[in-house]
Amino acid sequence: MAGWTTDEMSRLDGETVVVTGANSGLGFEATRAFASKGATVVMACRSVDRGADAADQIRSDAGGEVDGALDVRECDLASLTSVASFAKGLADDYDAVDTLCNNAGVMAIPRRETEDGFETQLGVNHLGHFALTCRLFPLLVAADGVDDARVVTQSSGAHERGEMDFSDLNWEESYDKWGAYGRSKLANLHFAYELQRRIDAAADALGVRSVACHPGYAATNLQLRTAEESGTPLAAVVMRVANAVFGQDATTGALPLLYAATGDVDGGAYVEPGGLLNMRGAPTVGRSNDASYDLDDARRLWEFSVEATGVDLSL
């Protein structure tokens, strides 16, 4: 795996890959890579217009066309209705999904709520992806490739500052924007690992594996949006400097997700950058913090998520 790059990705002709947040940052770079290998990439975007612009950019950069196909569709993870509509449309038009990349997210924003009344970071980063995965799971099971279908869930090194306080998951008592982000990223890991445990426990072989990853410090517009949301002009300046000095580019930051989606990794693996402090460099299989492997917290979060979204897997 040393020095792994997209040059080592296998061809994906005939495969369907769904990427949330595909119009910018890591999702954009992952979409470009999947399409260059021949996949049909369903670009699940909150804004169809921005998604279409991103697809046009990928085609333009490739000389007018890509090896695969780009299918832009609306999917607002802050709306369970939008998630359900997206999943139905996909089931109507596709027989199977080979890879689902739960990539989109928001980071350290002021407290607000989703359309369904969830604290936004938990609602978008975890609950929206939980509902999406559950709704698309029959399409993942239906995939008939040479390898298992995969669910890849993007977490963050910030999961280490997360805490699953089940008495106030929605931060109604008090709110810490970075604590809420850390919790949502810890929730991503609980979900990814618990999904694999449930797949393993199923009576029949399902042909699906769940893998988690994190990009390290990748300089994307996610940090800049966080700075803008702070309302402090200095924050944007500091974030730009930090991105320039410490961040790696989005192309490199997307490598853990791409390796988790296409590389030789087991279900339940955690793929991260292998360089300095696991914040930079080529992807490697590592280990998230001890809290992320807490079985009771994972079970409780799953039960909460089922009740909150009204969606569950039937394995």
Please provide a brief summary of the model:
With 315 residues, the protein is an alpha/beta fold. The protein has ten helices and eight strands. 44% of the residues lie in helices and 13% in strands.
Question: Which descriptors would you attach to this protein?
Answer:
single chain, alpha/beta, Rossmann fold, 44% helix, 13% strand, Oxidoreductase
Explain what you see.
By secondary structure, the chain is α/β, with parallel strands linked by helices. The chain has a single domain (10-309), classed as NAD(P)-binding Rossmann-like Domain (Rossmann fold), CATH 3.40.50. The chain has 10 helices and 8 strands. Strands 3-2-1-4-5-6-7-8 form an 8-stranded mixed sheet, sandwiched between helices. Helix 4 (120-141) runs parallel beside helix 5. The longest helix has 25 residues, at 177-201. It is globular. Mean pLDDT is 92; it is low at 241-245.
Any chance you could write out the topology, listing elements then pairs?
Layout: E1 16-20, H1 25-36, E2 40-45, H2 48-61, E3 69-74, H3 80-93, E4 99-102, H4 120-141, E5 149-154, H5 177-201, E6 208-213, H6 221-230, H7 233-246, H8 250-253, H9 255-262, E7 270-273, E8 283-285, H10 295-309
Parallel strand pairs: 1-2, 1-4, 2-3, 4-5, 5-6, 6-7
Antiparallel strand pairs: 7-8
Helix pairs in contact: 3-4, 4-5, 4-10, 5-10, 6-7
